[in-house]
Amino acid sequence: MIKNLRIEDFIQLDIPVADVRTPAEFTQGHIPGAYNIPLFSNEERVQVGTTYKQQGREEAILLGFDLTGSKWSGFIKQALEISPEKKIGVHCWRGGMRSGAMAWALNLYGFNVYLLEGGYKKYRRWVLDRFDEKYDLLILGGMTGSGKTRILHEMRKANEQVIDLEDLAQHQGSSYGTMNKLVQPTQEQFENNLAWHLARIDKTRPLWLEDESITIGKRSIPNSLWHQMRVAQLVDVKVPSNDRVEFLVEEYGKLDKDFLIECTQRIWKRLGPEQTKNAILAINDGRMADFIKIVLVYYDKTYRAGLSKRSSEDIYTLDCADNNAAANAKNILANVNKLKHLA
After folding, report:
1. Sheet order of strands, 17-19 included
2. What is the rounded radius of gyration, in angstroms, for the C-alpha atoms of the chain?
3. Which active-site residues does the annotation give?
4. How many CB atoms lie within 10 A of CB 212?
């Protein structure tokens, strides 16, 4: 059986999805959780495309069969590995010949195949539409080192709706945000992952996001969602400075010194030459608390500047005794009814 599905129905499928585009197309962006079973290699797709332009559709189809002739049993075996029950979603770029050919072969073998009408191109339209929708946002703010991400995770445990933007972007938002190990997804994949989470949100309940600049590392929060974040109510957690320094020493103190120095040099214009020099000396000497205190001057100033651009009526300040994420999350939820938004 082959069944064509609109994107709204396709994304509701609870079965494996085979993306038959090339590895390069898949790496650029794909439906979260999809498997890549490429009909053509990157180079083969170029050959077929060139043939289509120079010799026509029929010659391109013949070349496609020549290139895939010995691969079909392999395609079927891959499909069986990801879906032993023989139920599978399939798509290519525009829902054309590549997905059609794969659907034909899998159906012939006995699969129930669900084809995405319009292909990945239609899925990308669906992704972008998610960012134009309205969400009941609440923003968690606080100066660097306040443990905002940990607080959000504790709130999630309390059944609050939370999306961790930094986790999706694989970056912690500062010059040091890769932690010398994180690799960011492409912008397209970041958007795909974010839209996937947004689509599962109950819009009748608040959604908590962390206060972020429009860019997280090299990835950008989509404009429509960003503008909603900027006018949403914000809980500004106030954590004592010493606790913030201690938290950041724990987070960053064990990182490679060369990495820390390189990241510090990247923001030297904002730190100033003297403070940059002092920060690097502190790193080399192993004086991590001193290093953190120096760079916090810049990050605190940046945070206060961002906060000043919000309406004071939309900011709820909450003093926290220390950096205990569980206690601070409980404190926030106990006081959330004081927000104008929920009053």
Report:
1. 2-5, 112-116, 87-91, 17-19, 35-36
2. 25
3. 92
4. 18
Last residue of a domain, one of 73, 97, 128: 128
Q: Please tell me the predicted confidence (pLDDT) of residue 202.
A: 97
Task: State phi, psi for 233 to the nearest 5 degrees.
Answer: -70, 145
> d(Cα 60, Cα 68) in Å, to the nearest integer?
12
- CA 210 – CA 306 distance, rounded (Å): 13
CA–CA separation, 343 vs 311, rounded Å?
A: 17
Which domain-ending residue is among 128, 153, 183? Answer: 128
Q: Which regions in the chain score pLDDT beneath 50? A: 342-343
Distance between CA atoms of 308 and 310, rounded to whole angstroms? 5
Q: Which of 36, 13, 30 is nearest to 87 (CA)?
A: 13
Shared domain check, 120 and 53: yes
Distance in angstroms (rounded) separating the CA atoms of residues 272 and 267: 8
* Residue 343 covered by a domain: no
